[in-house]
Amino acid sequence: MNGLLRLFGPRRQPVPEVQHPALGTLSYDRESENWGKGAAVLGHQFRFSVGGEHEPHPVLLNRATTLQTELPSVLASLPSFLERAAKDMPELATEIRSLKVEEIAVWWPQQPDAVMIWFSGPSQERSWHCDYSNGVLTSLVFDC
Asked: Whose CA is closest to 78, among 29, 128, 31, 16?
């Protein structure tokens, strides 16, 4: 019977806000289904977000805490990373050079080191993102 209640009973709602000693206040966003906050580092303004089911996952909170200290070096290396990508994709070079950090996300408890950086850009047709893992920016790609 307990299994049926969990399956068909009322769903537990996500915690609307979490206070974290190192990260500060993280608020739940229903649209993206994660917790986050506004952040500004080296002139970049973006959303810093953490995944979880009903609350931010503890493993992801730990990764986000470490990542927060890495952000200055990550963001300082971003221009050269984007420039290399622009040279690799010359037909999209102008767009790539105009990308701005929109969100930095730690969403997957099974892969806490897998960080996604999402960008805003001039195209409404493409959603650009790259990976940051093991201290390296990789894989600038877009979704349509």
From this structure: 128
How many C-beta atoms lie closer than 10 Å to residue 112's C-beta?
21
Instruction: Classify strands 127-133 and 24-29 as parallel, antiparallel or unpaired.
Output: unpaired
Q: Kindly give the confidence (pLDDT) of every residue in the chain, 144 residues in length, as a single tens digit, with 9 standing for 90 and above.
A: 455 445 565 677 899 999 999 999 999 999 999 999 999 999 999 999 999 999 999 999 999 999 999 999 999 999 999 999 999 999 999 999 999 999 999 999 999 999 999 999 999 999 999 999 999 999 999 998
User: Hey, which bits of 44-135 come out as E strands?
Assistant: 44-50, 100-106, 115-120, 127-133
- Amino acid letter at 86? A
Prediction pTM value:
0.90
What is the distance between the alpha carbons of residues 71 and 100, in angstroms, rounded to a whole number?
A: 15
Count of residues making up the chain: 144
Rounded-to-integer distance, Cα 49 and Cα 47, Å: 6
